[in-house]
Amino acid sequence: MSTGELSFYQSVQRNFDKAAAHTDLHKGLLEQIKVCNAVYSMRFPVKIGNEYQVIEAYRVQHSQHRLPTKGGIRYSLEVNQDEVMALAALMTYKCAIVDVPFGGAKGGVRINPKAYSTKQLESITRRYAAELIRKNFIGPGIDVPAPDYGTGGREMAWILDTYISFNHGDIDGAACVTGKPVSQNGIRGREEATGRGVYYGLKEAVSYKDDMSRIGLTTGMAGKTMVIQGLGNVGSYTGLICQNEGDAKIIAVSEFEGAIHSEKGINIAELIKYRKETGSILGFPGTKKMKDRAAALELPCDILVPAALENQIHVRNAANIQAKIVAEAANGPVSSEGEDILLKKGVLIIPDMFINAGGVTVSYFEWLKNLSHMRFGRMEKRFNQQTYENILNLVVKLTGKTLGDKERLFVARGADEIDLVRSGLEETMVSAYQQIREVYKRKKKITDLRTAAFVCALDKIAADYVSRGIFP
Ligand code: NAD
Predict the structure, then answer these.
(1) Closest residue (by CA) to atom 5 of ligand 1?
(2) What's the confidence (pLDDT) of residue 1?
(3) Is the model's pLDDT at 228 over the cut of 50?
(4) Among 92, 135, 210, 235, who pairs with 63 as Cys (CB 3.0-4.6 Å)?
(5) What percent of the chain has a predicted confidence (pLDDT) above 90?
(6) In terms of DSSP bridges, do strands 288-289 and 258-261 run parallel, antiparallel, or are they unpaired?
(7) What is the spatial distance between Cα 262 and Cα 275, in angstroms, rounded to a whole number?
(8) pTM (predicted TM-score)
(9) What is the whole-number distance in angstroms between the Cα of residue 334 and the centre of ligand 1?
(10) How does residue 317 score in pLDDT terms, banded at 50, 70 and 90?
(11) Which atom of ligand 1 approaches the CA of 308 most closely?
(12) C-beta separation of 58 from 79 below 8 A
């Protein structure tokens, strides 16, 4: 990198080494976990208008210790092999932390998606999918992509359709990709999953009195001031859910076009609507425009949520960060060297490989749904509903009291798919945080949550290798 700082991949490797020093795992085993197992770098032509453009793209399978491998596909002009390798490695650790039985992978296509028409994006996506199929880099039991920066359900539907055209008759074909629209074999709750996971993870993290008093905060999400960078999929759902369900106060938002600030709080639902209509967050009523988009990161606040791209907090601005908590909704938003500075300042960093794992968790649920060929809740919803009705009727009979329709509906309700997905996600985020915190508290030499999270992941991945007899 021209700045002399570590590259994203080097940053991830440095964090790995820091954590590995706290384990007693075999050196060879650590090396096996650390390296990328397969790197597919490709170039393919796509006809754009009257010209052919050669598109640069990647798919990296970091660890095949569990199959399929899993990880999103990113569309951005910043995509390069180093970045995709770093993101794939993070996926391996992330899956292990939240007990999702996948290896880590990631894909990237070096394009600015805003520069192409829908038809052109479809051609690029289908051609990329065809390249993955040709090299056996996609399949329900091989490697399962999902959305990431610059992609969403639409792209996943194109990938599914391309895969199925090449694999006619594959009964499990729908499980070749996740993050699909609900109408295309997707699952309810996937679109919001990463942001919702950030909320559940944060809610758990701020619930411990001793942890909060160490950084001068009280427990609970209510009233906590938040700054969000990036109002895309992850940032917007994080903001919406933290505001609506956690009663947090979003005081600033930063986007590509600039940043806005209001100490009174910004209504995120209204802001998203405003940006859709005007194409910008700037000028949103009741807010002030900040000097530039990076300025929002340096505001005093309780929780800073970088939800855009990697390397946003680095050696040049880390000293200016005034947040008490940095929740890494994006992957790698704090560089390894930037982290050293934040930790010295006493900032609580909730690491990406935990806090943004909601996406892959619900992707796992989607994959299971596709393989089972059945919607969650279909079998038991009515049965549970009837059982609760029976209990209520008994209570009414025994007590002689009556129940209103509203109360009855509140208690006697069977779970729908969305209820089960959210419940599974909350359980996953809470128990993963507890595991990380337990390591953090038990291993006195570990002084940050990222290292603790890495140690959790390394122990689980190592156990997989050892149980297969590959390492002693
Ligand atoms: P997205 O494309 O939906 O949104 C990203 C937003 O960030 C865009 O609106 C973009 O304009 C904005 N942005 C870009 N550079 C910025 C800057 N310098 N300052 C302010 N805003 C900027 O992408 P996403 O899916 O929300 O992903 C965001 C991050 O979260 C990425 O690091 C991604 O790897 C990570 N992540 C995504 C998911 C997922 O399910 N989508 C899951 C886990 C992690």
Answers:
(1) 232
(2) 43
(3) yes
(4) 92
(5) 97
(6) antiparallel
(7) 17
(8) 0.96
(9) 14
(10) very high
(11) 7
(12) yes
Q: How far apart are CA 16 and CA 209, in angstroms?
A: 29
Q: Can you give the length of the chain in residues?
A: 472
Please give the pLDDT value at position 412: 94
Residue 119 among the catalytic residues: no
Over its C-alpha atoms, the chain yields an Rg (Å, rounded) of: 23
Separation between Cα atoms, residue 71 and residue 60, nearest integer Å: 9
How far away, in angstroms, is 308 Cα from ligand 1 center? 4
DSSP character string of 113-172: GGGS-HHHHHHHHHHHHHHHHHTT--BTTTEEEEE-TT--HHHHHHHHHHHHHHSTT-TT
SS3 letters for 105-122? EEEEECCCHHHCCHHHHH
Range 205-214 contact pairs with CB under 8 angstroms and sequence separation of 24 or more? 205/325, 205/327, 205/348, 205/350, 205/433, 206/325, 208/437, 211/348, 211/437, 214/346, 214/348
Can you point out the beta strands (E) in 207-320? 225-229, 249-255, 258-261, 288-289, 303-306
Q: Set out the domains of the chain in order of their start, with CATH numbers.
A: 36-184 (3.40.50.10860)
Ligand 1 pocket check: which of 77, 121, 149 to mutate, most ligand atoms within 8 Å of Cβ?
149
Q: What is the pLDDT of residue 3?
A: 55
Cα 255 from Cα 20, distance rounded (Å)? 36
> Could you tell me the two tokens for 48?
């754009």
Closest CA to 268 of 288, 283, 248: 248
Tokens of 217: 């905060």
Which residue is closest in CA terms to ligand 1's atom 11? 256
Sheet holding 51-61, edge to edge: 38-48, 51-61, 103-109, 69-75, 143-147
Q: What is the number of other CB atoms lying within 10 angstroms of the CB of residue 460?
A: 17
pLDDT tens for each residue of 274-315: 999 999 999 999 999 999 999 999 999 999 999 999 999 999
